[in-house]
């Protein structure tokens, strides 16, 4: 299994180009099931997760072709017809978001059999809201032996769906099904993440009629068919925020380009509060920190536009060296502090009680061997390693490969001393999370 070795203490100087958003790309890929015409996605990240989904789509009847376009990596997806409406456990298990093929399969072919994704390291992560939304749209759903059997022989019909709490995946799933339903669907208490807006933009280009994406009420007027289109994936806000915190942790000056600073407004405000210099640009943001110790600040994770749970581990790493005590509250997932004991191996002083972590800043971290537990936790450990004295070796980096494109290359181009140590087994045998 590959590991990442970091020799801490190098300042970061330079520019990093941000890739397309993983969590948008995989939902957009699923949208290709809704039309018999080709969908061309540009600004595609090349990640383990997009490869997993490509494999699953291939089994369902999608021709998936990765190519280099004039503006970088792109993926062509073409599903002339659905050849199988079955998403097996071995593929859904590897990536939870594969579950989101259920809605499009049902909308296009009237039936589907999709494995339940199961729990994962950051929490139980049920899919009850997804299933309730599909039931409201008229699907008949049965659960047997770990599979969802869904049918809508006479097609889906529009409905009013009130989510009891905000779910990104359930909002996207309802959109992916409702676009081809008969009549109007209203989603209330919908998620407002930029990835929701991106999905709506792409679906609208495909001929869907969605208004309100990005607000908590989304209205969808169903249409009878969708067409192909070309769509550029939005920049990855989690990658942007992660490199912003890497620069703040290591010190130096890094400009993040081809991205949107408004997607991480909440994080940048918190970083400024902690004493980091932030310069916002049209195409990104510059992060500067020169020597001064940061101040401890409190954060609470919340649905967008609140502080993203996917940035919490990285922020905790940043706070380990701050002056004072930082209180970090995790409100989205019940078990998302697994990086804390690993950070403690580097010398961090963190205590956890329920969904609250108290991080008392220490003057220095010391390199050690640590183990990644999920995608964002693993990059939090890399960030800590950038500032720790001596060598930090992060194990199980297949987690990182799921969601960060060429992480070591991007950091080492800015002066980080980081390298991949090749191992002999792969992510596939190890598990899943996102
Ligand atoms: C998406 O997960 C992201 N994944 C996550 O990123 C992200 O952390 C999360 O949204 C929150 O922003 C993808 O987009 C692929 P939710 P999702 O439904 O859609 C509970 C990463 O590292 N819930 O908004 O699964 C759920 O357990 C990943 O890239 C139910 O109870 O998140 C959680 O506590 C990790 N029933 C809360 O809602 C349901 O039916 C919010 O989850 C659905 C969700």
The count of strands amounts to 24
What's the pLDDT, averaged over the residues? 95
The profile of the biggest β sheet is:
4 strands, mixed
**Rounded Rg:** 21 Å
- The geometry reads as globular
Q: Which structural class fits the helix and strand makeup?
A: alpha/beta
Number of helices: 14
- Percentage of β-strand residues: 25-35%
Low-confidence stretches: 425-434
Report the oligomer: single chain
Describe this entry's structure for a reader.
The protein is of the alpha/beta class and 434 residues long. The chain has two domains: 3-18 and 235-429, Alpha-beta prism (UDP-n-acetylglucosamine1-carboxyvinyl-transferase, Chain); 22-232, Enolpyruvate transferase domain (UDP-n-acetylglucosamine1-carboxyvinyl-transferase, Chain). It is built from 14 helices and 24 strands. A hairpin with a 2-residue loop joins β4 (63-69) and β5 (72-78). It is globular, with a radius of gyration of 21 Å. It starts with a strand and ends in a 13-residue tail after the last strand. The model is unreliable at 425-434 (pLDDT under 50). The structure holds ligand EPZ. Residues 23, 26, 97, 123-130, 167-170, 309-310, 332-333, 375-376, 403, 434 line the site of ligand EPZ.
